[in-house]
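Because discrete structure vocabularies remain unfamiliar, we turn briefly to a single example record, giving the amino acid sequence and backbone structure tokens:
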Amino acid sequence: MGMKNASWRISLAAAGLLAAAPGCKQREERAAAAPAPAVTAESSAAPPSAPAPAAPAPSDAQIAAIVVAANQVDVLAGQLALEKSKNAQVRELADRMVTDHTAVNKAAVELVTRLKVTPEESDLSRALTSGGADKRSELQRLDGDAFDRAYVDNEVAYHEAVIGVLKTQLVPAAQHPELKDTLVGVQPAFDAHLQHARMIQAGLAGAGAAAGEARP
């Protein structure tokens, strides 16, 4: 399972996993409703502004910190689900997440120690940690079926984002061949996690629909 959560949340922010999406949508709606600025001779003649510089790719040291933060986010979410959920399938998923991501963090620490890479905090790793705490606060306020659906929905979104960032950002950025090989090697495990979460998500949705139809 190597460093699976490595990218996990480089794109937490990018994917809006931790509830950034609603705020973005509201800003988009306000922008769409605002009147377009008038075009003047001065503004039409002005050269276009230069694009913002792309964020630098994370270093191996930063990737190591991202890996640890991302795994810990899912471990803590899984522990919360084991405390609150009574659903056997949800508990099975949560237990798998706690076990697998704890093992990944252990392997990640062993690898970076052997490679003599000291994990370095970055905006991404800090965002992962704070975003995970925000999501757990949201989940903590829920109970029963509402909690189960929200937890599983988050696991689906989380792993979709992780897989995308792993392939497009962390693997290309990794400099040490062993680190790169490890990140590539964990992709099948992430795919399996995502499929497991999607299966439970579909089951919960079906059960909710059936309960709604059964009400008089």
